[in-house]
Structure formats: C-alpha cells, structure tokens
Amino acid sequence: MGTLTVDQLGQEFAQYKNALAAFRTSETVARRRWAGKDDADSAFIKSINPYLADLQKILQAKASRRLMAKTQVQTARVNEHIRTRAGHTLEVQSIAIFLAELLGLNPWLAQAIAAGHDIGHTPFGHVGETFLTGKLQALPAYQDKRFKHDVFGVIVAQKIERRGKGLNLTRQTLDGILNHSRGSGKASLNDQVSFEANLVMYADKIAYVFADWNDLFTRNVLDISDYPTLKKLMDNCGNSQRERMWYMIGGLCRESAETGKISFSHCEEAGVFEQIKAEMYQIYEHVNLFESEAILERVYRFLEHINFGEQNPALVMALMTDKDVLHLYERNLLNIADIRETSVWELLSFLRQLKDLDLCDPDLDW
After folding, report:
1. What is the DSSP string of 246-295?
2. Of 89, 296, 96, which is closest to residue 211 (Cα–Cα)?
3. Mean pLDDT in the chain?
4. CA distances from residue 143 to 136, 152, 204, 256, 360 in whole angstroms, order as listed
C-alpha cells in the first residue's frame, strides 16, 4: 500500500498540480475586525499579502512561544526530540504549505491557519481541556458548555494577545483556527469555511497521528507488540513516518483532485487512516502524566486562593504552560511569589479586565 518510490510519488503528485486553483481564497476577500484601525503592524499590513501578515502576527505572538512548553502527546518529557505542541504546529505548517502549493490554493492562508491552529491549547493537552470543562460547568453560566481549545484559540487571538488588544487577524484565518478540530470523531468537511481551512484540518490529523506514533512507539514508551492491529495498519502504510505520511497525503491529493474539493473520506488511504486514528485514540489516555488531574487541581486551588476576586482562575490556567503548572505543583509551600517565575505572571495585571470573559464564545459575529 504505502510502497511507492520517490519517482512514482513525484509523478503522481504532478498530476494534481493546481487541481483546485479555481477555489483559491483570494487576498481581496480578506477582512479584519478593525479594518480602519491602526495596530502595531499597520505599516506592513497594507503592503503585503494579508494572510502573510496574519502569519507574521501569529509567529511573533506570546501564545506561539508558550506552545514550546505545552503537551503534544507526552507531558514532562526530557527528550527534546519528542514533540511539543510547537513542534507539532511546525509539522502541520509543512504539510499545509505543500498541499496548498500543489493543489493551487492559497499557501499563505494555509500557513497562517496552521501556525495559529493550536494557540488555544491548555497545559497537559486534552487532559487540561477536560479539567477546565469540569471547573467551568460548575458555574451557572457554563453548565451546558465545554472548554474547547479551538474556540479558546480565537479568543486568545482576539482578546488576549498584545495585552488585550488582540492580533487583528483576518476573518479567514480565524475561521480556520475555529474549525480545525474534530477530536476523536471522523475527520469531516465543513462546507462553511475555505478550502484552505479544510486542508489544514486534514494536515493537522495526518501530522499528529503519525508523529504521535513515532514519539510513543519508536522510542519504546509503549511496546508495539501489545497493539498488533495498530502495528499491522501502520506497516501497511510504509516503513517510516515519512513514507506513511506521504502515503496519506497522496490519497488526499488524489481524492481532492477527483472530487473538485478538499476530500479524504472515500479512498483506500482514508479508510486506513480512520482505523489508525481510532486505534491511537484508544491509547492516548494511558500515556500522559500520572495523576495529572490531581496536579491541575492543586494548582487551580492555588490560583483561586491568590486571585483576590480579580482574575478568573480558569482563564489563568488555560494560558499556562506545562512547565508553569509543574513548577507550582512541585513547590512544597506555595506562596504568591512562586507564580512570578511563570510565563503567565506578566499577563495577570491585564487579565483582571477580562475576569468576566466568556471562555466558550469565539465572538466572531462581525
């Protein structure tokens, strides 16, 4: 299945060049919430591709820097080759650039969405999301809501970056960030967003499934002999992470070219991919930090203790990194001075203004 040579892959990909060029998102449709308002980047926003401007804004954001210390699949890893959320983001960008350039879509928009797609992630990955959902649902205003990193990513971009001024990204990039996640469910299309946004959604899935396998199994975190079905599926896709990734990208390109839209649901590769993803989701819960909820709980109670009614502890925790949380957890006797060493410390002064911010509302009604 995943055994095409480099030459064969090259010939196959050449067939799909500009197959979706008619659906490329134009720079002329880009719009910002504050179209007539100067921001720190106004000098170059007017001079370059608006989606490239978005990419520059995201890459320079503090939220992007914090991704370097946030969980991808393993918390508190020592080996720097194991991916952080930032490492994963770079791999999503690389796939998105390739796909957009090959299929004739807008590579700058695809890169901007990919760069920003995970800026709303919590410490400890999806464990942190679940923890904060529980905390929020204990409040009357959040009883039927869930904390979701895709929604919070848009909130970070609009309401938190640059000390509350926001990044003033285009609506096209924000829509892509908001609609990139499918969780453990089937990776389905969203016809209400751009082709580039759907492309990044698939790039994200392909990136993390094979990278997470690489981090967990090739480094012997888990014993592959305990997962024979998963091993067989992976082996059928190729002999390395790169071969498996290209196998899936080839299927996505072929199906998209044939259907005239971003599509990855009918071909053989897509069927195998969904099986692999389902198998991976069965093991994710077993590989993160032991007693992670207890760790988060202790730090959350500390944040409640020190906020003096001035900050929402859920908002503060959502912005923290793994290192921030573990630094506070490992202190024997916590006091307010300990939080001064965390990345979230410099944000606290203006977070007072956002105490009543709805953490489940992306506020894209504009």
Report:
1. HHHHHHHHHHHHHHTS---SSSHHHHHHHHHHHHHHHHHTTSS-TTHHHH
2. 89
3. 91
4. 7, 17, 30, 40, 11
Backbone φ, ψ for residue 139 (5° rounding):
-100, 140
Condensed to tens digits (0 to 9), the pLDDT of residues 335-344 reads 888 999 999 9
Q: Which two tokens stand for residue 260?
A: 């005239």
| pLDDT over 60 at 1, yes or no | no
Residues paired with 71 in a beta bridge: 84
- The residue count of the chain comes to 366
Burial level of 84, CB count in 10 A (0-12/13-18/19+)?
Answer: buried
6-30+40-124+146-284 has which CATH code?
Answer: 1.10.3210.10
Domain boundaries, the chain: 6-30+40-124+146-284
Distance CA 148, CA 9 (A): 37
pLDDT one-digit tens code per residue, 64-97: 999 999 988 777 667 778 889 999 999 999 999 9
